[in-house]
Write a structure and sequence with these properties.
The termini are far apart. The chain is mostly beta strands and 186 residues long. Mean pLDDT is 78; it is low at 1-7. The chain is built from no helices and 18 strands. It is elongated, with a radius of gyration of 22 Å.
Length: 186
């Protein structure tokens, strides 16, 4: 029997001495670990009970085990598979292991002519994508002075007000941050 598991390791915070355990025996399991820390994944009960096992990240084979023997381990310089208990230990977790958007900060500044510059920044996100809405609709040319709705910084025209939302997403997660804005001249 061949088992193929898709498992996401999500990185939260920064801590070099934290070890977390995760049951990865369910397809699509999501495990969390600290940046720089260690995660111990329970991939199976015993490797001897599984004829062939592959752990994938999208289409890339991270770990390939057949009959208790590790055929390949893409991250062998910082990980170790224990066939007797079916655990896979990953040390020194990095953002390339998959990093979710953990928090979003919105900062707005009034400019000299009454325009408003708004910046959206994200923490911990690998390859973030940004989008903006005002009162639940995509920003229009009549509201936007410069920038576009797919960048992390925009400038709004004078007299624009309402509920401004910045959405930051990547392959792992999506986080929204909203702020109520009003005319800069008021």
């Amino acid at each position: 029997m061949e088992a193929v598991i898709g498992l996401f390791v999500m990185i939260l915070g920064v801590s070099h001495n934290v070890e977390t355990n995760c049951d990865g025996r369910q397809n699509g399991a999501q495990c969390y670990g600290a940046l720089g820390g260690t995660v111990v994944l329970q991939l199976m009960n015993k490797a001897s009970e599984t004829h062939r096992y592959q752990w994938l990240k999208k289409t890339t084979v991270i770990l390939d085990v057949r009959r208790n023997i590790v055929l390949s381990n893409l991250i062998e310089n910082r990980s170790f598979f224990t066939p007797s208990d079916g655990t896979f230990r990953i040390n020194k977790l990095s953002t390339t292991d998959d990093a979710p958007v953990s928090s979003v900060l919105l900062v707005s500044d009034c400019l000299s002519q009454g325009e408003m510059k708004v910046s959206c920044s994200s923490e911990g996100a690998e390859s973030p994508q940004y989008s903006w809405t005002l009162d639940d609709h995509t920003l229009t040319d009549s509201e936007l002075l410069s920038g576009n709705t797919e960048t992390n910084s925009i400038t709004l025209k004078q007299h624009v007000s309402g509920k401004l939302v910045c959405s930051v997403r990547n392959d792992v997660s999506n986080v929204l941050k909203e702020v109520q804005i009003s005319n800069c001249g008021e």
